Amino acid sequence: AREIRLAARPKGLPTPEDFELAEVPVPRPGPGELLVRNVLMSVDPYMRGRMNDVKSYVEPFRLGEPLDGGAIGEVVESDAEGFAPGDKVLHGLGWREYAVLDPRHAVKVDPDAAPLGAYLGVLGMTGLTAYAGLLEVAAFKEGEVVFVSGAAGAVGQVAGQVAKLRGAKRVIGSAGSDDKVAFLTGELGFDAAFNYKSGKVADLLAEAAPDGIDVYFDNVGGDHLEAAIASFNDFGRAALCGAISVYNSTSAPTAPRNLGLAVGKRLTLRGFLVRDHGHLRERFQREVGRWVAEGSLRYRETVTSGGLDKAPEAFIGMLRGENLGKALVEL
Ligand code: NDP
């Protein structure tokens, strides 16, 4: 069996040399445990943060040890009640072909109810992040103008559509290519979108939001947050979900420089972690699950196939913006 280990702590954008593919024996499950063979795994921006040796809200990855993260495995052996060989389970031990699980850390998923990728994306962690960030953290209300950055990614594609479906007056998205912009305004029904590489974000946003914005769903930080602060109407709210523009940077961020405006505009800028919003999970799965089933909420996935050894390039590609929607790896 194979697993991917952290070989070196990346400087800037990770390179393939920061990862090591290692051959290990298939692990043996103990009493009460499960052995699963992973079939699908997630690559996520937060994993970049865990590659640095800094204390954060999750422990850093250790050098020479396997990475981990969201995955779907098929049960191969089970000594746990309620789990049988062939069952598919959602768990946190990706980046390896086989994993031994404590059944308390495995959730059975139904492949007939939704494609497996949905449990890692639109109906899973990234979907819940979008739902909680928009509705609970930013306290979005019908009739408001919403701006979503990283809008063609896993979280962003759901955040913008939930805003539309919940009655936003106008939804604006930003992304890093013209194709992604066309996807946002075409397939996903955003009212406006711009390619942030085509000009100054503040100018592009001001043009797309002539009447200002009320809610900002921030996946990007930096210039995007500065632009949102400039475009905010009074009492605007930002859900600070992530700041991917700085994850690979080796120098201090230069924006936002206008945080002082938060006072006069009486803004709320609130950071959040999806793990604190588990109480929304059922409501989220019911509401978004219905929208997905009836086709009113669409989503994309970018699935890299070819096995575990392709995971590092899928991860690096995601950081470079090569994914549309949720980035996944098929094992
Ligand atoms: P995505 O699917 O959005 O993939 C990452 C995307 O980031 C890329 O496709 C790329 O798209 C964009 N990107 C890369 N570099 C830059 C840059 N310099 N400036 C602007 N955009 C860039 O990932 P997720 O949807 O999984 O995550 C989105 C955000 O949400 C991240 O910041 C992540 O950390 C955060 N997050 C936070 C959680 C929480 O609990 N707070 C939970 C889950 C995610 P493009 O082509 O548009 O540049």
Automatic annotation (TrEMBL):
Gene3D superfamilies: Medium-chain alcohol dehydrogenases, catalytic domain (3.90.180.10), NAD(P)-binding Rossmann-like Domain (3.40.50.720). It comes from the Bacteria. PANTHER family: PROSTAGLANDIN REDUCTASE, PROSTAGLANDIN REDUCTASE 1. It holds the Pfam family ADH_N_2. This is NADP-dependent oxidoreductase. InterPro entries: ADH-like_C, ADH_N_2, ER, GroES-like_sf, MDR_fam, NAD(P)-bd_dom_sf. One of its GO terms (molecular function) is oxidoreductase activity, acting on the CH-CH group of donors, NAD or NADP as acceptor. Residues 14-329 form the Enoyl reductase (ER) domain. Transmembrane segments: none annotated.
